[in-house]
Each structure stands twice: as structure tokens, then as C-alpha cells.
């Protein structure tokens, strides 16, 4: 059903899945994860990653599964090791200059990435045909933020500073990341994913000119090269924080669908985007955490504006770890009741 909508179909109720639908808010995930303290080792163990992928689909009967992995397997595979520190997030040895970029390797689908592709194939074999399997990557810009900052950042001064001072040198890193993400997504499609999402989580920290150069252009190149190998693969772009630049992003990149963050007005998106591509979003994860009547009202307003579609229900960003699983069940139930309301 997700695929029908991505091909331009309209469905009431709309298909529903959630960013970060697998993870720490689920007790069954915490139990599985507690046996493997190292997060990336967990991602690289097919038996564990398959189970983590399937847990939310089983519990909530969602319309799609998203591969359990992380965007940061890309730098890890290129020779910039990534570790996760409890409560602090990812940590990398920051790339300091062009010499560090030159020292990076390409992405080879062997070893640990072969394990990720085994996860894809196994999940696909376990899912009912009508449940889509979503693969993903981080957009080159978002990956570069982690690789240059060495982890999460407040002001992105190092990565934005490099892009402004030395755009040609920084462009070499971005080009390498375009190639690496093309290779990763191609392998995921070869292994069995039905659709891919490109997470540009930090697109919104760029000034308008930088957004065009470092978010739109690399994403456009990535999609064109992926489609030269897999012409029909649907692509969902998620340029978080892109705001008024969304129509330009959609027109230029050629995405099949665009994910909206929660700051985008659903009525604005219906007017400005539904004529261009399918739209996905955009309940605030904190509203899901709060649940109850406030959540019901907010869901009704999103559905009211967008459910004529093509529309996919989702959050505006990932499920928060403190979210009660019952709120997710209530959310899915409310979205599914849209059929009779329509
Ligand atoms: O259910 C799913 O969405 C599938 C798997 C998935 C994860 N990360 C698992 C994960 C996906 C699609 C991602 C994408 C991802 N990873 C993004 C883009 C989306 C977004 O949230 O903006 C980014 C920026 C990352 C990088 C990352 N991974 C950070 C900053 C962190 C630490 C902060 C946090 O949320 O824990 C992670 C860790 C991570 N990735 C966890 C999970 C389930 C938590 C790990 C744990 O079990 O402790």
C-alpha cells in the first residue's frame, strides 16, 4: 500500500509507518539490545537487526518496516570508525582537512556491510508482500556534519566553516559521500528493499545558498546515479528544516515523496507540494509522547489537510525513547479510523 501511494495513488486510510519505529521506547528492543552493549555490533549482527526491524511491525501492524541499521555505518565502512557513547550519541575522530578526506576509502559491500545486506534479504523474506521494506542512508551533508564535527553539534561551526572557506575541498568530501551512498543504496535495493529514504536531518542549519549546493545538488546526483542502476526505485527525501525551500528541493532532486518535519504547516504542504510528489509526515514526536485528546486533535488536523493525498502518515522526526508504546498503538488506530471518517 505504501508503494501504491508513492506511485501517486490515494488511499484512505493512508499508509502509516514511523521514523525510529524500532528502538528504545519498546521493551522488547531494550531486552534484545541489553545483550549487545555495542550499538554498531548490534547493527552488524543479522539475527539481532532482523528481530529489531520486525518488532514494531509485529506489535503495531504498520504498513512498512524500516531496516534496522544506522546512517553512520557509512563513515565506519569508509575507514572513520564510529562509536556510540551512552547518553551522548555517536563519536568519531573528526576529519580535519583534505588529507583526512583523501585517506578515506570507498564503500565496499563486504564484511560488516554484507551483514547489513543479509539483514535486508532475511527481513524481506519474513514480511508479508503488502508490507514495504524501507532502506535508507544519511544524505551526504548530514553524514559530513558528523564526520567533520566528530559527533553531534550545537552550531555546526566546523563543518559550515569548512564549506564556506574552502568549498572545493569540502566538495571532495561531499562527492565521496555521494558515491558511497549510491553504492550503499544500490546494494540495499539489490538485497530486497522496496523503497529508500534519504535522511537529511541537518539540512535546516544551512543558509539558503548552502542548502542548494550541499543538500539539493548532492541529493540530486545521488538519486540520478541510483536510478541509473534501479530506474523504478521510489525515493523519499527528508530534508529536515528545509521550510520554504521544500518545493525547490522536490523539483530539483526528483524525489518520489518528501518527508515533512513538524514545523511545516499541513495546509501549506497540501497547496505547495501535493501537486509535485507524494507527501509524508508530520506529527510532532512530543505530541505522540503526550498522547490523549491533544494527539487525536493534531492527527485529525493533519489528516484533514493531507489525506486526499498521495499521502503517507508519519512523524515529523523520530519516536522519542520515553514514548509509551500504547500511544503508538492509539496513533495507528486513529489513522486507520480515517477510512470511515472520509
Ligand atoms: O527504526 C528505525 O528508524 C530504524 C533504524 C534507524 C536508526 N537510526 C537506529 C538507531 C535509523 C533509520 C536511524 C537514522 C539516523 N541515525 C539518523 C537520521 C534520522 C534522525 O533521527 O535524524 C541519524 C542522525 C542517526 C545518527 C544517530 N544514531 C544518532 C545521533 C544516535 C544517538 C542518539 C539516539 O537517538 O540514540 C544514533 C543511535 C541510534 N540509531 C539508536 C537507534 C535505535 C539508539 C541506539 C541504542 O539502542 O542505544
Please describe what this structure looks like:
The chain is α/β, with parallel strands linked by helices and 342 residues long. The chain has a single domain (2-341), classed as TIM Barrel. 51% of the residues lie in helices and 13% in strands. The protein has 17 helices and nine strands. The radius of gyration is 19 Å and the shape is globular. The relative contact order is 0.14. The mean pLDDT is 97. It binds coproporphyrinogen III.
Q: How do the strands and helices of this protein lay out in sequence?
A:
Layout: H1 2-6, H2 27-33, H3 39-43, H4 46-60, E1 64-66, H5 73-77, E2 82-85, E3 89-92, H6 98-102, H7 111-126, E4 132-138, H8 140-149, H9 157-165, H10 167-191, E5 195-200, H11 208-229, E6 235-239, H12 246-253, E7 257-259, H13 266-272, E8 278-283, H14 285-290, H15 292-306, E9 311-315, H16 325-336, H17 338-341
Parallel strand pairs: 1-4, 4-5, 5-6, 6-7, 7-8, 8-9
Antiparallel strand pairs: 2-3
Helix pairs in contact: 2-4, 4-7, 8-9, 8-10, 9-10, 10-11, 11-12, 13-15, 15-16
List the main descriptive attributes of the protein structure presented here.
single chain, TIM Barrel, 9 strands, 51% helix, globular, 17 helices, alpha/beta, binds coproporphyrinogen III, 342 residues, two-stranded antiparallel ribbon, 7-stranded parallel sheet
Task: Sum this structure up briefly.
The protein has 342 residues and is an alpha/beta fold. The protein has helices spanning 2-6, 27-33, 39-43, 46-60, 73-77, 98-102, 111-126, 140-149, 157-165, 167-191, 208-229, 246-253, 266-272, 285-290, 292-306, 325-336, 338-341; strands spanning 64-66, 82-85, 89-92, 132-138, 195-200, 235-239, 257-259, 278-283, 311-315.
Amino acid at each position: 500500500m505504501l508503494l501504491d501511494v508513492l506511485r501517486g495513488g490515494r488511499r484512505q486510510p493512508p499508509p502509516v509507518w514511523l521514523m525510529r519505529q524500532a528502538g528504545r521506547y519498546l521493551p522488547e528492543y531494550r531486552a534484545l539490545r541489553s545483550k549487545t552493549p555495542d550499538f554498531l555490533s548490534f547493527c552488524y549482527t543479522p539475527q539481532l537487526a532482523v528481530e529489531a526491524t520486525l518488532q514494531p511491525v509485529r506489535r503495531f501492524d504498520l504498513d512498512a518496516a524500516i531496516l534496522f541499521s544506522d546512517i553512520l555505518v557509512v563513515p565506519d565502512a569508509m575507514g572513520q570508525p564510529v562509536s556510540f557513547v551512552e547518553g551522548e550519541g555517536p563519536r568519531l575522530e573528526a576529519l580535519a582537512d583534505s588529507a583526512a578526506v583523501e585517506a578515506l576509502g570507498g564503500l565496499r559491500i563486504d564484511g560488516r556491510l554484507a551483514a547489513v545486506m543479509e539483514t535486508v534479504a532475511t527481513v524481506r523474506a519474513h514480511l508479508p508482500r503488502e508490507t514495504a521494506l524501507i532502506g535508507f542512508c544519511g544524505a551526504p551533508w548530514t553524514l559530513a556534519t558528523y564526520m567533520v564535527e566528530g559527533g553531534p553539534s550545537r552550531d555546526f561551526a566546523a563543518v559550515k566553516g569548512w564549506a564556506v572557506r574552502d568549498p572545493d575541498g569540502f566538495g571532495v568530501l561531499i562527492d565521496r559521500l555521494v558515491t558511497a551512498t549510491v553504492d550503499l543504496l544500490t546494494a540495499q535495493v539489490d538485497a530486497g528493499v522496496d523503497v529508500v529514504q534519504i535522511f537529511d536531518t541537518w539540512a535546516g542549519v544551512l543558509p539558503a545558498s548552502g542548502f542548494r549546493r550541499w543538500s539539493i545538488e548532492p541529493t540530486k546526483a545521488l538519486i540520478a546515479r541510483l536510478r541509473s542502476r534501479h530506474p523504478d526505485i521510489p525515493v523519499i527525501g527528508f530534508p529536515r528544516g528545509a521550510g520554504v525551500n521544500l518545493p525547490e528541493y522536490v523539483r530539483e532532486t526528483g524525489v518520489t515523496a518528501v518527508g515533512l518535519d513538524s514545523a511545516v504547516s499541513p495546509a501549506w504542504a497540501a497547496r505547495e507540494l501535493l501537486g509535485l510528489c507524494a507527501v509524508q509526515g508530520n506529527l510532532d514526536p512530543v505530541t505522540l509522547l503526550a498522547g490523549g485528546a491533544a494527539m487525536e486533535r493534531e492527527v485529525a488536523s493533519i489528516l484533514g489537510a493531507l489525506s486526499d493525498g498521495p499521502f503517507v502518515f508519519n512523524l515529523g522526526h523520530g519516536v522519542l525513547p520515553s514514548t509509551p508504546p500504547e500511544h503508538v498503538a492509539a496513533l495507528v488506530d486513529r489513522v486507520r479510523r480515517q477510512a470511515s471518517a472520509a
